[in-house]
Amino acid sequence: ALTAAPARVRALDRRPARGSASALRALPAELPAPSVVAEVADGLEGGIQFIYLGSLLAILGFAGFIIVRQVLIRRELDASAKAMGERIRAGDATAEEYFEMGSIMLRKKVYTQAVRNLKLAAEMWQGDQEDLAQIHNALGYGYLETEKLDASVAEFKKAVELQPGYVTAWNNLGDALERLNDRKGAMAAYEESLVLAPGNQVAANRLEQIKTRLSRLNQL
Fold this sequence. Notes:
Elements: H1 4-13, H2 20-26, H3 34-89, H4 95-107, H5 111-124, H6 129-145, H7 149-162, H8 167-179, H9 183-196, H10 201-216
Helix pairs in contact: 3-4, 4-5, 4-6, 5-6, 6-7, 6-8, 7-8, 8-9, 9-10
């Protein structure tokens, strides 16, 4: 009888305690290993780094393209200016060549030389009046960039007189008059520009800003 007792005890030990089966079922079959979690985290971090690196490379690539393009344009302008300058120094340049030289100097932002060549082009011009209007507009822009506002207004007015439908010249005239604090004159120029080109956002925005400013000053 003494030896049979331990067997009954072992049989009782194999019976699960009340509620233990449900507790076991509530546990996951297998917990993820810490190394798996670390790998997932590393993968996410690597993806973010890849996106950031890709964006950075795209920005740098675009910036490099712009810089290279500007360098090429500058070289092209320099070559054109050199060739045109040689013809002008030879003393047999035409009005068209002076105009071209003046336009190149405007693009290079060498405004003093641009004005000098454009003045010669206007004096020598014997072609169409519409083309002459472009010369006066370019000359007015050269004066505008050198702060010779009265001269720029005079040139822009000549441009629109020669070519009344010249929207760019009307815009430039409005800009020059605005810089001279002639807001009413600038408004008239911008309004004329909008009559010719209703979708002209430059004139529309400038006109709205002038009207807002004058309204605040009770001068409208």
